[in-house]
Amino acid sequence: MRIRTLVFGGIALALIGGGAKFYLDHAAALGQAASSAPAPAPAAPRIPVTTEPAQVGSVPIEILANGIVTPEVVVTIRPRVDGQITQVHVREGNLVRRGDRLFTLDSRFNQAILAQQEAQLSRDRALLARAQADAVRYQSLRGEGFAAQQRFEQAQADAAAAAATVRADEALIQQTRLNIEFATIVAEADGRLGALPLQIGSFMRLAENVALGTITRMDPMLVQFSVPERWLPEIQRAMRTNTAMVTARAEAADAVPATGELIFVDSTVDTTTGTITLKARFENADFRLWPGQYVQVSMVPRAEQNALTIPSASLQTGQNGRFIFILTGDGTARRRPMELVRIIGDRAVVRGELAAGERVIVEGAQRVTDGSRAVERTTAPQRVTSLN
């Protein structure tokens, strides 16, 4: 009996000891787990951005196009008589004035013809004088009854024929003198000479129609360009009010734009391209524009009032169209959908839910999302542009 009691007592003590150990081990595990739990995450840093204010004001309507410089006058130098070139008075690329001598052709053959014709004229004038004297003599004899009427009429006819022969001789002489004058080829317009393919010794034939060169008028100069037909109402309005300002600029980085006036609007729209051809005239005393040169053309028919503009660099494109981010007063970036109307320099004319003065994120816009925390940079000066 005593042995059974001792056995049950030992079992009870063992159970109590095991429970205590389980409790202690569980408490230690809970303490270790509590000590290894992660600390609360720190707040995300704000994204540095730069902003510019949205602006509302007067913005010019700008029509952009590519144009080509075309001369207003190009004169092709061609001979008017046959002859060999004996003198060249100019060089390729020279600036010439109207009336300047360019080439001289051999005119000795025409001068010989002229001498022959002048001798013929002297003989025919002598014959004319005798015929006129006979006519006067027969007229006086007819009045006294010594000459018949028929003889008098013959004398008058001979005098008229002699006079006609003299006039023909004078016309031939004038023609020959012109041919001699045409042997000296002069400039028919002010401008710059092009290449001269023929030099001294070349023989020119009028029938071959060979060009001796060209003279291109350099001032003023025309620029021809084409714009989409949707701009036609604006262009017509500007032509009526004489307010269309056109500028042309060469592709060189340091090129200075030239300012001209619109002088021509084509009578038809090109149905294959949907464009209309225009021409503008530019003063070109400094030879800023060169024939055949490609230029960038800008035409401003008028200015649009109360236009909403933002920096063009702030405009982004997504699956649902264009959008921007603005920075609110509490430092939150908010996405706004935008409709692009046109680009003017580094500003974009837009339509959308945006008020004048709201801060549009320019630099750093690709790093923010809707609801991101952002802060205005203070290390770099703020850049603000305006079209007003």
Automatic annotation (TrEMBL):
InterPro entries found in the cross-reference section: MdtA-like_b-barrel (IPR058626), MdtA-like_BSH (IPR058625), MdtA-like_C (IPR058627), MdtA-like_HH (IPR058624), RND_pump_MFP (IPR006143)
Record bears the keyword Cytoplasm: no
UniProt-recorded name of the protein: Efflux RND transporter periplasmic adaptor subunit
A cellular component term, taken from the record's GO annotations: efflux pump complex
Organism the protein comes from: Plastoroseomonas arctica
GO molecular function, a single term: efflux transmembrane transporter activity
Domain Multidrug resistance protein MdtA-like C-terminal permuted SH3: 306-367
Domain Multidrug resistance protein MdtA-like alpha-helical hairpin: 114-182
Entry keyword annotation includes Transport: yes
Domain Multidrug resistance protein MdtA-like beta-barrel stretches: 220-299
Gene3D superfamilies tied to this protein: 2.40.30.170, 2.40.420.20, 2.40.50.100, Helix hairpin bin (1.10.287.470)
Coiled coil: none
Boundaries of every Multidrug resistance protein MdtA-like barrel-sandwich hybrid domain copy: 74-209
Main location: membrane
UniProt keyword list: Cell inner membrane, Cell membrane, Membrane, Transport
Subcellular location(s) of the protein: Cell membrane
Lineage: Bacteria, Pseudomonadati, Pseudomonadota, Alphaproteobacteria, Acetobacterales
Family: Belongs to the membrane fusion protein (MFP) (TC 8.A.1) family.
